Amino acid sequence: MADPSTYRPSPGTIPDAPGVYKFRDPRGAVIYVGKAKSLRGRLNSYFADLSLLHPRTRQMVTTAGSVEWTVVATEVEALQLEYNWIKEFDPRFNVRYRDDKSYPVLAVTLNEEYPRLHVYRGPRRRGVRYFGPYAHAWAIRETLDLLLRVFPARTCSKGVFRRHGQIGRPCLLGYIGKCSAPCVGRVSAEEHRDIVDDFCDFLAGQTDRMMRRIEKEMNAASADLEFERAARLRDDLAALRRAMEKQAVVFGDGTDADVVAFAHDDLEAAVQVFHVRGGRVRGQRGWVIDKIDEIDEAGLVHQFVSQFYGDQADLAEEGTASPVPREVLVPALPDDAPAISDWLSGLRGSRVQLRVPHRGDKRALMDTVARNAKEAFAQHKLRRAGDLTARSAALQELQDALGLETAPLRIECVDISHIQGSDVVASLVVFEDGLARKSEYRRFAIREAATEGDVAAIAEVVRRRFTRYLSETNGNGTGAGAGAEPADQEIRGGIDPETGRPKKFAYPPNLLVVDGAGPQANAAADVLAELGISDVAVIGLAKRLEEVWLPADPEPTILSRTSEGLYLLQRVRDEAHRFAITYHRGKRSKRMTTSALDGIPGLGQSRKAALLKHFGSLKRLREASVNDISGVPGIGTHTAALVHSALERDTPDNTPDKGRGL
């Protein structure tokens, strides 16, 4: 693991100007690209105390071997350069928006002499126009079947097209009027392309113009007594209307917008996009990504917009409609929103608005997209976890890879959370048969090892947890190692006399996972050896390369990146990390809230609790007058004046809690 201080630029050499920077590994490969309004401020943040960094940011800076930057004149230039470098170098630590499942789309191969309409899944290609994505392939086929009677374009593969051209007879669709049969020369290449262009215009939202034209032709045919042609045009018009009914109308003003929403936790994020064209929802897309930095929704918006629309613009053909809509509706605006809007406007060729909807139909649609994002995120978390076959395979893989006598049906994981050594806490999560057992989670406030680092903290947690285990299984009830918070305490004894089941600490794991590498795994194993416990396997899971460390082994065990066993270990570790951060934030918030009231004469714990309960928060208490404070039962005028005076002098710490993030 590299020490970032070995390649940190000299103080004062980083310019205080907008620009784009690249981190390279020791072999020179680009592993991360980012932009900043101030290169100095942004790059200095990467060389702070490693314990303050988001886990994946910490992994990035310890993998890198050098950093370089390019100064630009404006933020718009920085956006463009950042996008170009991400596309050119494909850095491993940059967010990559890959579909969480392969949505089907309707593809039109405009790069062929006789363009083809077909259902498609996979990466986008130049020269092909895409409509959708749709939720189901059958929805595309149903819509396509309705539209082929109006736009009889080719839908067959190259082989079928070539074969029918050789035999001189069209396929069935050519006989029933759902293909213009260019394979046998019924229409020329130019006439067939006109049909395809009309089809694309209709799906792109130019529905009213198309339907008015057909209605006008129908009336003209009827006036000329061409009743058969008029009847055919009437049926075409009905088919178009049925196809339009399948697309939900959400706005009556012909809105052209993309609506974007996110659902995320500390480590991953899901994004959903609804494409609204001509007031109708034309498609939907979704991704699930890893979060590299401790990033909020505004940061996610910046990452998504710059990557998604840059890629779409690169794939768009000249003369086709711009993939960038007039409006991009997002849940939060990034700091560089004006620059992003200018960049999008350049891609579109006309003004693009990037804004947050606050009321009305657009706000309602944003809420709908947000619900879809939350559902997609939940499904992503549960998809593999809920698969019994995958869980069984994961447990078997772990047994084989770690040399265990039996499959680890019960896995416990320990993680530590703190900020620069303050409010050090730990979590212990439990997975049984590959699924989380949240009722058996435990949390610990670190005591003796609070100032000694993560390795000592892990040793303390393991000692307290397994001392309690020995206490309960021996049935002496002393609880020598008891250390869980009051909410997690349980009655003593190895067996609960009411249920007849083992108590929580009396049930040992088959496998104990600690968040860290060799030193952490060795510390946990040493504690178990001291306590005489030999039937619990111990490993460390390092975030850097997801390496598995066995105690006393000089080299890690590497599991395949596609391994179900590694995926299970990652889920266990990430859940322990989430639970530890949640506890740490609550503990720190509670300390910061009550500390402002400490030291006020006559104000004990009961009166502090009464004040906070009455006003609801320290902020409201700070805004209250002496009379308001004295109105709280048990608080006299003199004490109220002291409280008011103390809060006026106190400056609140409004720094947001980032856990271990940036």
UniProtKB/TrEMBL annotation:
This is UvrABC system protein C. One of its GO terms (molecular function) is excinuclease ABC activity. One of its GO terms (biological process) is SOS response. NCBIfam families: PRK00558.1-5, uvrC. Interacts with UvrB in an incision complex. The keyword DNA damage applies. The keyword Disulfide bond does not apply. It is found in: Cytoplasm. The UvrABC repair system catalyzes the recognition and processing of DNA lesions. UvrC both incises the 5' and 3' sides of the lesion. The N-terminal half is responsible for the 3' incision and the C-terminal half is responsible for the 5' incision. GO terms for cellular component: cytoplasm; excinuclease repair complex. The gene is uvrC. It comes from Actinophytocola xinjiangensis. Residues 259-528 form the UvrC family homology region profile domain. Residues 489-500 have a biased composition (Basic and acidic residues). CDD domains: GIY-YIG_UvrC_Cho (cd10434). Residues 208-243 form the UVR domain. Residues 16-95 form the GIY-YIG domain. Pfam families: GIY-YIG, HHH_5, UVR, UvrC_RNaseH, UvrC_RNaseH_dom.
